[in-house]
Amino acid sequence: MQSSAFTLSLTPFRKPFLHHLSVSSSSFISSFSSKANIINVDSSFSCSFIRQPATPSWPLSSSSSFKLPSDRFVPKAAAESASENRSSGGDVLLRALKLGALFGLWIIFNIYFNIYNKQVLKVYHFPITVTAVQFAVGAALVSFMWCSNLYKRPNLSGAQLAAILPLAVVHTLGNLFTNMSLGKVAVSFTHTIKAMEPFFSVILSAMFLREMPTALVIGSLVPIAGGVALASATEASFNWTGFWSAMASNLSNQSRNVLSKKLMVKEEESMDNITLFSIITVMSFLLTAPLTLIMEGFIFTPAYLHSAGLNVKQVYIRSFLAAFCFHAYQQVAYMILQWVSPVTHSVANCAKRVVVIVSSILFFRTPVSLVNAIGTVIALAGVFFYSRVTGTKPKTT
């Protein structure tokens, strides 16, 4: 009568001599009961015991000592875990590099926009035309991306266009007033005044969205207002037109943010920020083109520039570069907003404003007094504090 035998199959091993290890039932049971620690099988391995007719086998007695070489295999679960960790670490590193590159481009485009734009406005005193040129270049870039399928062209309904139109109007006014301010005062002073944006954001949100600010938010507005007042009182290039233009820009830009929350609740559900910005850019060009002809006329021709004693080539190149950087830095800003939280974006915007102010002071050699510098630092510190405390959910009534 033939005796039964059990075959122990170790599937993770690929060596030929370990494919099938046959063990007689009596010797296996005897060995396993007396020396249970001879063979340990990890739970990640699969072991199959198959009853089959007896065949010539390799008996493993209780006195046998058999070791599995540790350098011949890696547990499956450990290998998968290590692979996942490497993949996760690589993804985190790649994300950090991309985000760092976007932040760098955002700052660089912003710096060059302010430098080229100021150089143009110092010799060409027509801010509406300059604004129209910037929107024209932006609209051309948007059209190119849509036509070349670099970005999906949106299909808009009449209700969506009607909801976006007010945003385009205040967006146009915000950039127009910024250019008017840059044409009258130093770049550093314009951006110091624009640090007052949180002040308008809190007021407009309370009035139209019924979002009541916290005590910390209100407290953060005190150093902002005080710092701007101190910087304005000691600004060498102070001009009331430049001051009120920058304040009007703050009001316009924050009105855009409030309107986007109030009017675009349903219409914006299927529209990302970059698409919305692209549509607003095209609309802004259509709004500024006729306004330019009515208010300033067609005075961007080579003949007019030459008659005004300007370097035509230089004005054209700097205007194009300023317009390109203007569109690029705003588009990159929306791309960053898709990667980070609004609070992180606001803090980064504060840091970006500091870099723009410092770089413009160095490039244009703007005279800055100690009191003026202290006022600017206080205002920017208030903006930074505001950016941090806005993470607290405001009360609504």
TrEMBL record:
Assigned keywords, A-Z: Chloroplast, Membrane, Plastid, Transit peptide, Transmembrane, Transmembrane helix, Transport
A GO-annotated cellular component: chloroplast membrane
Stretches of the chain forming a coiled coil according to its record: none
Membrane topology category: Multi-pass membrane protein
UniProt-listed Pfam families: TPT
Subcellular locations according to the entry: Plastid, Chloroplast membrane
Claim: Transmembrane is one of the keywords in the record: yes
Transmembrane spans: 92-112, 124-147, 159-177, 189-209, 216-234, 274-294, 315-337, 357-386
Domain of life: Eukaryota
Database matches in NCBIfam families: tpt
The protein's name in its UniProt record: Sugar phosphate transporter domain-containing protein
